[in-house]
Amino acid sequence: MSKLRNFRRHFSTFVLTRGLTTALLGSAFIYLDHWGFSLFWLNSILGISFLYLLLSADRTIWPVTGFFIGIFWFWWIALSFNHYHMPWAVPIVVIVTGLLYGTLFWAIAFLAEKIPTINKSVAMQLKPTLFTLSLKALGLLGLSYIHPFGFDWFKPELIFVESYFGIQKWQFAIILAGIVLTLWKKQYVYLFLVLFAWQPLSTTAINLPQDIRIVTTYTSVEEKWDKTLHPQQFNTLFTAIDKAIDENKSLVILPESVFPVFLKRSASLMQALEQRSGKISIVAGGLYWDGKTPRNSTYIFTDSTVRIANKVLLVPFGESNPLPDFLSDWVNKVFYDGAVDYKADSNVTDYTVNDITYRNAICFEATSEKLYEGRPRNMIVLSNNGWFTPSIEPTLQKLLLQYYSRKYGTTIYHAVNMAESYIVQNGRTRSIP
């Protein structure tokens, strides 16, 4: 019995260590970028190593890897509960997040190892080992299409966004195929197949627009909604706009909900912004009330006129509860003081400023595939990262914007609260001039 217990303890330790190591390899690119040490060659090696270890692991290790992946990528989600005065919920949400992704990874490995025993004829034709490895690879290929509660930030191919490999699905499939053949044949020569996914980012210098000013703000969540501080905050914003006018800029972009009021109903603010828009175009975040439900919106001021573009994709739980109505009402009452969900617009909005067309995007929706339908050439994104800072959330958001910029060729102008603003062109982040 003692020998059996020692074996089980050793086996459990091995599974935990292997799963944790694999998850660290699959998460390192985020933290390296966050700490300013992102290197293309290193990210390339780490990404290949992660996939190699994961595909070669049995189904006891996959859920452990998924559990830690969920935590390493998304632990910051729990930080928002601090702003609702529920710190007790933080560790619970972290664990639940890990369990959710652990379950997804377990399901892939379980089905990959179970199906060959059910359909033996197909498995024997393809060889059992190759069949199982192929099913695991297909599971990884399809993971980016699984969006728990509408949250779509997990994309396995994101590990190569700052690497020498491409991030298109066909390129990710080639990488997986090279690793599968290597494991099946037990010959490392097949790893050279990943070179067919080789696609280094262009290092050619790009001339950034000199007539656009992107404003960064540092207003905490508590300060943003403190009405007594609004006069000071608004004065700071108007000072930034006036400075952009003095610098002969043609467009100034302010972050999400920098005006945390129903802006259309504030005559004094609207008048001040419309007057300044005769000298400079202004894109700013604010709230909008249509008489029934609130909306998270972008206000576009040009030539003393205003246009409003509403958010299309709402943050799960943060802005709209994805649960059935009877549960949604209870959650809103218990956790959000009975707050009413925001309302999403049904159509994506494009608007033109100074003869250039921009796709409107507000924070979370800029990291979703829907906003890139039609391959927009330019996008203005307004974000408020105050709910999740300090954390890796702004870094992960930036990597996702790089992913979509690289995939669709979209130039993204990103104005942020509580993190640095930037421009993304051809998949690379550019400093604001």
Structure description:
The protein has helices spanning 2-34, 40-56, 62-74, 89-118, 120-126, 128-142, 169-185, 221-224, 230-246, 267-276, 325-335, 393-408, and strands at residues 212-214, 251-253, 259-262, 281-289, 294-302, 305-310, 350-353, 356-362, 378-384, 411-417, 422-425, 428-430. It is α/β, with parallel strands linked by helices and 433 residues long. Strands 1, 2, 3, 4, 5 and 6 form a six-stranded mixed sheet that branches. Strands 7-8-9-10-11-12 form a six-stranded mixed sheet, covered by helices on one side. A hairpin with a 2-residue loop joins strand 7 (350-353) and strand 8. Helix 1 packs parallel to helix 3, helix 3 (62-74) runs antiparallel to helix 4 (89-118) and helix 5 (120-126) packs across helix 6 (128-142). The radius of gyration is 24 Å and the shape is globular. The termini are far apart. The model has no long low-confidence stretch (mean pLDDT 90).
Short key terms for the protein model shown above:
alpha/beta; 433 residues; globular
Please write out the topology.
Elements (H helix, E strand, L loop, with lengths): L1 H33 L5 H17 L5 H13 L14 H30 L1 H7 L1 H15 L26 H17 L26 E3 L6 H4 L5 H17 L4 E3 L5 E4 L4 H10 L4 E9 L4 E9 L2 E6 L14 H11 L14 E4 L2 E7 L15 E7 L8 H16 L2 E7 L4 E4 L2 E3 L3
Parallel strand pairs: 1-2, 2-4, 3-4, 8-9, 9-10
Antiparallel strand pairs: 4-5, 5-6, 7-8, 10-11, 11-12
Helix pairs in contact: 1-2, 1-3, 2-7, 3-4, 4-5, 4-6, 5-6, 6-7
